[in-house]
């Protein structure tokens, strides 16, 4: 990208996208915490019985998250209490997809979906271990859409005990659309990665989505807490 190209034209929408999605997952986590807290014993935190979950209210919060965030393709609540609270290792996933015509609600449990165990997914494990927000991807989401996806997640703690994760998905294709809509023609050479150097978008040949960036020919020209932008040196 040469000096005549307004760099802020690319950076500004990217910062808005990543920041908004991170905020959405954190806000959803806060709302779910407030909703579920009354179900937990004031004296001793316990396993939450999923049969007692206010499903309509949970779906309403998720649906509001989808409506308020124009970038995300799906959002949900992955429930799994810490082992001492949940000796049977019960889990459940409340998820909603957003498309052009309607929102589709999905509820999964070990009984309804034996091959899915989100407790092994990085967006769940990292969020739990960090006890804070985590942005994961890009990765191929074989469970939901078989597309390259990024997930913004935030933990749910009630009385200092972990009860699950609120998450928001963003398709990499949506990020690409946002970048391409502001890039001038001819398109400048640039590479966008996550904070760990995994490629999200590139106009340079040889840099594929999901690859780890290894190149001394590129230099970081913008560092954000959730992404990095590289240009040829």
What does this structure look like?
The protein has 233 residues and is α+β, with helices and mostly antiparallel strands. 26% of the residues lie in helices and 29% in strands. The strands form two sheets. The chain has a six-stranded antiparallel sheet, with helices on both faces. A hairpin with a 4-residue loop joins strand 2 and strand 3. Helix 1 packs antiparallel against helix 2. The longest helix has 29 residues. The mean pLDDT is 87.
Which helices and strands, and how do they pair?
Elements: H1 8-36, H2 55-68, E1 74-79, E2 92-98, E3 103-108, H3 122-130, E4 134-140, E5 148-158, E6 161-171, H4 172-180, E7 191-193, E8 199-202, E9 218-224, E10 227-232
Helix pairs in contact: 1-2
Q: Report the biggest beta sheet as strand number plus sense, adding barrel if it closes.
A: 6 strands, antiparallel
**In sequence order, what are the helices and strands, one letter per element?**
HHEEEHEEEHEEEE
Give the percentage of residues in beta strands.
25-35%
Mean pLDDT: 87
